[in-house]
Specification:
- With 253 residues, the protein is α/β, with parallel strands linked by helices.
- Helix content is 39%, strand content 17%.
- The protein has 9 helices and 8 strands.
- A 6-stranded parallel β-sheet has the order 1-4-5-6-7-8. Strands 2-3 form a two-stranded antiparallel sheet.
- Helix 2 packs across helix 3, helix 3 packs parallel to helix 4 and helix 5 crosses helix 6.
- The longest helix is centred in the last third of the chain and has 21 residues.
């Protein structure tokens, strides 16, 4: 299955500057550009990357629905939207999937998003299920990040927040050691255990990590394991916002 996103428009005079654009004319032009770049005739799942606050969601999704009727797109998806926005979008055209960040240390979807997905029959795709790599337990110091690593600018990875959150990760590592698996496998097993309609998409650049991630399918978490993880990673226990202020405003929460 081929899935891709649109919504962020680059400034032609400054490629580093991006703005959100959900206007119908941009929906159409972005799709045509993606089809051309990908060298395909149809996109299986077309996501709106973030909601454009200046364009009613009905207008954006309505234009996306036109792409389905034109045979350019098979299914529609949204990313990082609030429950009410999801419901309005789904009323305009069926939404197949909602993609949002979800992991032991990002539990926002539990505040109504997952429930709305289930009520409407929308699949949930969990991005960053390994907490942007932090839940693997391999990142031990802020200095482990390369100078150009975007995580350096995220509050959860800075100063006292880093040290506090590292202690939470160590509790995951301890339980993983007892179960004979990696911390990454344990964290992914937790996400997989949230329901058959929850599909985690861990990113990886190496075959070794891919094989390790796949091993999470063999991990079973019992009631005691889940309770222990809940105590260690209560939603309020994580220090720092998940995005810098400017990006947090785009999260749809």
């Amino acid at each position: 299955m081929l899935a891709t996103k649109f919504g962020f428009q680059r400034d032609p005079t400054d490629p580093e500057r991006r703005t959100l654009n959900g206007r119908p004319e941009y929906v159409r032009s972005a799709c045509d550009a993606s089809l051309k770049r990908l060298g395909v005739d149809v996109i299986d799942l077309y996501y709106l990357h973030r909601v454009d606050a200046n364009t009613p969601i009905e207008e954006t999704v309505g234009a996306m629905g036109e792409l389905v009727r034109a045979g350019k797109v098979r299914h529609l998806g949204l990313s990082e939207v609030a429950p009410a926005t999801l419901a309005r979008a789904h009323a305009e055209h069926p939404i197949a999937a909602l993609q949002s960040e979800y992991s032991l240390w990002t539990r926002d979807p539990d505040d109504g998003v997952l429930a709305t997905c289930r009520e409407l029959g929308i699949g949930f795709v969990a991005f960053s299920p390994l907490g942007r790599g932090f839940l693997t337990g391999e990142i031990r110091r802020f200095e482990d990040f390369a100078a150009d690593d975007y995580r350096r600018g995220h509050p959860r990875f800075q100063g006292d927040n880093f040290a506090h959150n590292l202690a939470l990760v160590d509790s995951v590592r301890a339980l993983a050691a007892e179960k004979g698996c990696s911390a990454a496998q344990l964290a992914l097993a937790w996400v997989l255990g949230r329901g058959d309609d929850v599909v985690p998409i861990p990113g990886t650049k190496r075959r070794t990590y891919l094989d390790d991630n796949a091993g999470s399918l063999d991990i079973t978490l019992d009631v005691a394991d889940l309770a222990r993880l809940e105590r260690a990673f209560a939603p309020a226990s994580v220090a720092g916002a998940r995005y810098p202020v400017q990006m947090q405003r785009l999260s749809g929460r």
